């Protein structure tokens, strides 16, 4: 079904995979230029160095959890006008159900910003961010940067990258996105999916194969092979958007007449270009996927990589569910999945098909065929959110909505809420099956820290519908005998013409409209000569998601108020973190007012530091918090996962490795040093780490950082070695200045 080549391979004529370099005419260096990736990156690179890229994008995209902070940061740094199209969608906090007026206040801020700076404003319920971008902005050979981790339009020939807001600020200020040339992994598709198999089944199969081994981490996934032509464009989009869950940097697909027709249907045939590897192309690795052998899949709580075929799960229910419960317990979450077993089958109470992954036209028309003339009953609920108003209009026109609603299913407007924990929260203890992008804890809206816990498993829309007509009994769509009608899609953009504000074409004078929850960023200190870090959280889970660093869902309503949102930092995973961070931050505040910070509990710590560094100047030692996690930053691109630590006085993270580039970039842009530690950790929460000459170390490009652990429990000082992996010159300046805002103010 899936084969990994963990060494470089050559692709000849787009079909023959060759591992032996001696039989290939071109050198590896030359053949690297044969990928689709190389051509697009070269076109967007503003430097003469293809090993150290300085990229400029064609378009930007944000939603209503991220755009206020981005615009506020850019405004503080001298923003006059958006230099390229910047789409501001309103698809996350759309319900405006928490915090009174504050969500709609942010929407009004977004509209006023689009008018003032020349942006494109998509009102609530019109389209989820990525569907709008597919329909209106993505095109062959383009590059798009978005402040959402699922920014992926590779199936339309666009290299799209999801990053934290700081990277969008750089583009808004006409700066570049600086990265090393990434490795490129070929994803060779062959064959054709069986009846009942959908894009989520293929995506989960890939995630299962590559997430835990890091096979594509921070690399580009390039989809090639004859199997691509056997997939509709929306099917490709459904796979593509889930590549984020592999921890790859981005993705790109070969294009064909189906892409041309898709763009033509969306009145953008001019954006089509045939993209394919050259006669000889070199890939740093290869994944071969036989689409014929893909089965109906399920990702059990609490990660998209926790994948099994539905058949495998059915045959080993007790054993697999026991293991899932055990893994959850190790994360501090008690669940009872085995109670969902009835008469030897797994039963769920809810299904949701929504967002950029599930709410596409192709998914929903297939679901309509499955539900047609059937009932979902009273013990199972199913909610479907078409991903855009044009999609909804067409589904209504061809009768799909009627078929769906007659079954007892609820159809709603475009909304990302069920994907990030702000919609369709099941009852305590229930299991929800979702064709969305993630199933982290509280992604369905529950509050584990308050004893409220429900669970999400990811499945394809077709299998969710098959389960629905069986009263919640887990059912693979491949078990059904059904002929899908596949009605042709016709794009109607009248609603966009009537409702979307396009200020990039015609901006007008406007003042920003502020609500009471929109607050400027607090002042942040410049990096000091030395650092004293108090360890305020030690997380030993194999992976720590951004949802654990700052919960998604209703807390995101406070995203425009840095200090208020920060109150939720690590609230699910380490509830006492905020209290500990504030306690150490008070000493830094003393230092910033030129008062000796080494008072109270820090007196004894100071004496120990004096033994290490007799020339220590108390006013040159930055004092703040740090956290340790084995592998932090999997998941969302939300910069709040870093900025909330910063406003609470965070100076650093310490990790074995960082799960994603975007989280590491967020840390740097907020002036948080991304330390790496190779040795087994020998510290606990409450211990201190003294880092001597950190400013000099960063400025002089020194990778190894000699540091000192001050153990509170054992009343001793031990040397430890921290490392800082490669930083660009700009990143070094940002860290020294204290954050991106300070960097731009200075420059």
What would you say this structure looks like, in words?
The protein is an alpha/beta fold and 747 residues long. It folds into four domains: 2-34 and 182-293, 3-Layer(aba) Sandwich (Aconitase, Domain 2); 59-177, Aconitase, domain 3; 298-494, Aconitase, domain 3 (2-Layer Sandwich), CATH 3.30.499.10; 530-746, Aconitase, domain 4, CATH 3.20.19. The strands form eight sheets. The chain has a seven-stranded mixed beta sheet with strand order 17-16-24-23-20-21-22, with helices on both faces. A seven-stranded mixed beta sheet has the order 31-30-28-26-32-33-34. Strand 12 (220-224), helix 8 (233-240) and strand 13 form a beta-alpha-beta unit. The radius of gyration is 25 Å and the shape is globular. The termini are far apart. The model has no long low-confidence stretch (mean pLDDT 93).
């Amino acid at each position: 079904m899936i084969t990994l080549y963990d060494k470089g391979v050559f692709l000849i004529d787009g079909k023959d995979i060759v591992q032996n370099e001696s039989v290939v005419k071109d050198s590896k260096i030359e053949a690297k230029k044969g990928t689709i990736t190389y051509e697009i990156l070269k076109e967007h690179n503003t430097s003469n160095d293809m090993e150290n890229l300085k990229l400029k994008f064609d378009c930007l995209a944000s939603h209503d959890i991220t755009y206020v902070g981005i615009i506020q940061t850019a405004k503080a740094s001298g923003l006059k006008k958006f230099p390229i199209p910047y789409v501001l969608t309103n698809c996350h906090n759309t319900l405006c159900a928490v915090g009174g007026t504050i969500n709609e206040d942010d929407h009004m801020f977004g509209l006023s910003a689009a008018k003032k700076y020349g942006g494109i404003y998509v009102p609530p319920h019109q389209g989820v961010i990525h569907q709008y971008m597919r329909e209106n902005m993505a095109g062959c050979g383009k590059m798009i940067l978005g402040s959402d981790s699922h920014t992926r339009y590779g199936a339309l020939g666009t290299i799209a990258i999801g990053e934290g807001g700081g990277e969008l600020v750089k583009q808004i200020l006409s700066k570049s996105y600086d990265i090393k040339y990434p490795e490129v992994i070929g994803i060779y598709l062959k064959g054709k999916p069986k009846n009942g198999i959908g894009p989520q089944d293929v995506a989960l199969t890939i995630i299962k194969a590559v997430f835990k081994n890091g096979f594509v981490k921070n690399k580009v996934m390039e989809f090639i092979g004859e199997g691509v032509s056997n997939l509709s464009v929306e099917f490709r989009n459904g796979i593509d958007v889930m590549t984020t869950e592999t921890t790859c940097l981005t993705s790109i697909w070969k294009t064909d007449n189906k892409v041309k027709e898709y763009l033509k249907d969306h009145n953008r045939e001019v954006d089509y270009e045939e993209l394919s590897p050259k006669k000889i192309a070199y890939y740093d690795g290869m994944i071969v996927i036989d689409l014929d052998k893909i089965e109906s899949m399920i990702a059990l709580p609490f990660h998209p990589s926790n994948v099994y075929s539905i058949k495998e799960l059915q045959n080993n229910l007790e054993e697999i569910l026991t293991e899932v419960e055990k893994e959850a317990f190790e994360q501090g979450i008690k669940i009872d999945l085995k109670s969902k077993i009835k008469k030897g089958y797994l039963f769920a109470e809810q299904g949701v098909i929504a967002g950029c992954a599930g709410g596409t036209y192709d998914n929903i028309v297939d679901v309509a065929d499955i539900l047609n003339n059937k009932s979902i009953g009273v013990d199972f609920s199913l909610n479907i959110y078409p991903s855009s108003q044009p999609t909804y209009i067409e589904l209504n026109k061809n009768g799909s909505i009627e078929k769906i609603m007659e079954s007892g299913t609820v159809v709603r407007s475009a909304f990302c809420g069920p994907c990030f924990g702000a919609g369709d929260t099941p009852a305590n203890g229930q299991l929800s099956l979702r064709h969305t992008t993630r199933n982290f804890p509280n992604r369905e809206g529950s509050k584990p820290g308050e004893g409220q816990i429900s669970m999400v498993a990811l499945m394809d829309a077709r299998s969710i519908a098959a389960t629905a007509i069986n009263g919640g009994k887990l059912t693979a769509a491949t078990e059904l005998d059904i002929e899908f009608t596949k009605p042709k899609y016709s794009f109607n953009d009248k609603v966009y013409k009537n409702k979307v504000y396009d200020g990039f074409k015609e901006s007008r004078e406007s003042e920003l409209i502020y609500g009471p929850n929109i607050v400027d960023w607090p002042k942040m200190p410049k990096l000091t000569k030395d650092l004293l870090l108090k360890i305020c959280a030690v997380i030993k889970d194999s992976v720590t998601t951004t949802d654990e660093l700052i919960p998604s869902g209703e807390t995101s309503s406070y995203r425009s108020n840095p200090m208020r949102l920060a109150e939720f930092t690590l609230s699910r995973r380490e509830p006492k973190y905020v209290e500990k961070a504030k306690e150490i931050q008070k000493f830094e505040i003393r230092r910033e007012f030129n008062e000796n910070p080494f008072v109270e509990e820090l007196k004894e710590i100071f004496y120990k530091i004096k033994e290490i560094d007799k020339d220590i100047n108390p006013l040159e030692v930055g004092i703040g918090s740090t956290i340790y996690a084995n592998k932090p930053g999997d998941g969302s691109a939300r910069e709040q996962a870093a900025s909330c630590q910063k406003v609470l006085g965070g100076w650093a993270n310490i990790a074995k490795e960082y799960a994603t580039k975007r989280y590491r970039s967020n840390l740097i842009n907020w002036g948080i040093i991304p330390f790496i530690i190779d040795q087994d950790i020998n510290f606990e929460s409450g211990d201190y780490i003294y880092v001597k000459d950190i400013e000099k170390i960063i400025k002089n490009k020194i990778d190894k950082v000699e540091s000192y652990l001050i153990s509170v429990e054992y009343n001793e000082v031990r040397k430890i070695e921290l490392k800082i992996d490669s930083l660009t010159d700009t990143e070094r300046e940002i860290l020294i200045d204290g954050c991106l805002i300070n960097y731009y103010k200075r420059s």
